[in-house]
Structure formats: C-alpha cells, structure tokens
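Quick one: structure tokens for this chain, please?
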Amino acid sequence: LFNTILVVCFLTRPRPVAISTSVRNWLIAPLVLVLPFLLRPAAPLWSPLSAVARVGQALGVLIMVLSLLALRGSIGVVAANRGIKTQGVYAWVRHPLYAGEMAFFASFLVDHWGVRNLLLVGLLLVGQVVRAHHEEALLAQDKRYASYLGEVRYRFIPRVY
C-alpha cells in the first residue's frame, strides 16, 4: 500500500518552485533512501519487546501512509518547494513522513538487533534529521512556510521534538 501510494505521488508530483542546491543535501537524501536496503532481518527472540517492535513498525507505516496522502504528490528525493502542506498529519508535526520512517526503522532494530543494523538505523535517523533541516532552510524562503513554522513547532514528535 505504501509503495503504491509513493509511486503514484512521485509520478503525479508538481514541478518544484525551488529546489535545493546544497551538495550535502544531494548526497544525503539519496543515501537515506538506499540505506534501508542494507538492513538485514535477524532471528527475533520472541518476547514482549518483539510484539512492541511490530506494533511500532505498523504505527510507522500508518504514519507514512497518512503523510503521503496529505502530501498529495508533493514529494521528492531532495529538498524542494512543491507547495506547502499544512493539513492532515502535517498539522501536528512538520516532518511526519520522516517521523514514520524513523519509528519504523527504530522498531525494526528492536526486533532485529545487530551491530550492522544499529549502525544503519543510526545513519538513517541522523540522515532524516539532516534532511529535515535542509527542507526547512529551503522552504523558509516561502512566507507561507515561515508562518507554518510558527504554527507547528515540532519536527517529528508532537510536544517533544
């Protein structure tokens, strides 16, 4: 479901009004998309933590789907202004798609613990934070986004961060 919505959004996305020229953004954004392919499932030990991890993964996917539906095609790899979205889950946090991905991958790590996965998930989390900062720097040039920053104070987790 998520991948189908993602492909439809990507194929129907509008042309950007502005796009990042940051070399760092052009390196980090694609890297964050490739890193999940390097994660490896490990034999999970069945425990209450495993059940919690699976709930976390499901919640992450749900947040990701709701984010894509709210974006309605305004999606890309690198930071770009394809219109300011402020409705749906974007009324609660500024980067719900990244937050959903972070929740999914952190939960995956809990269920599939390993040093390799720890390093990859750590890089993914840092990469998403950096991507969010790049997006905000670009979008803040739009007065509608500057206003949105004042209304929605949190990046990933309501009332936390």
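The chain is about 60% helix and 0% strand.
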